[in-house]
Amino acid sequence: MAIYDGKHVHGMHVVHDGPREAPPLVLIHGSGASGSSWGPVMSALASRYHVIRVDLPGHGQSPPAPPYDVPEQAARLAEALDGLGLRPVTVAGHSSGGYIATALAEQRPDLVGSLALISSGPSPDALLPQPVLLRVLIDPPLGPLLWRVRSDAMLRRGVTAVCNRPVDVPDDLVADVRGIGYRTFRTVLRHNAAYIAERSVPARLTALDVPVLVIFGAADPRWDPSSAHHYDTVPNARVEQLPDVGHFPMLEAPEATSELLLRFAATGR
Question: Which residues, 6 or more positions from 137, have their beta carbon under 8 angstroms from its beta carbon?
Fold first, then answer.
């Protein structure tokens, strides 16, 4: 479906889908994932928009490039979008990708016309106890050892562990996740936590004059689903909760997710 090959722009792998003359829609994946995580919604989104998927540094086909703090990653993304000559854009971020999207809007209000956050926890106190498999893979002493011997089946279970519905994990996502280094992943997680500990996402968005869509799975096992309503305090924000959906709405409910994104990109609501 890509209308031209993926290429590296300011160190980040970028893939374009849909008509280039259409309004731009930028998709940012979460930690431990890649642009491939958006695969199930691409057909619908690219039918109306010029969709730009990025692999953040150290993820997917983008090489490692520390530091990995959220504002620095947002600044690199801004450079890439400037290099592509795109503005203003609708930006959608999944999980911690929502933090990169928020930081991008903080730094470059001229660049971001509207902002969609999917499964982005608002603050540290909303984090739930993580699934056992993820804790084992992430935390020492077993984490570094298991990381080197992860099988495809284990990588798929890592994704499905945060889903509430049965999903088919795309093969390209599995391949991309395999390439993420343990130290990079741990560092990214630490910087994500620091960003929302410094100031909650709703507080950051309240200071911005930008339309916001928040999509949350009502059965998210990573973040307390009721914390989605912390975003109710944000002016120009709309919160949508998807019944029986976990942390990956794009994989678990691609039709509902794409419909919400299409409507928001078209109307800002």
Answer: 143, 146, 147, 150, 154, 158
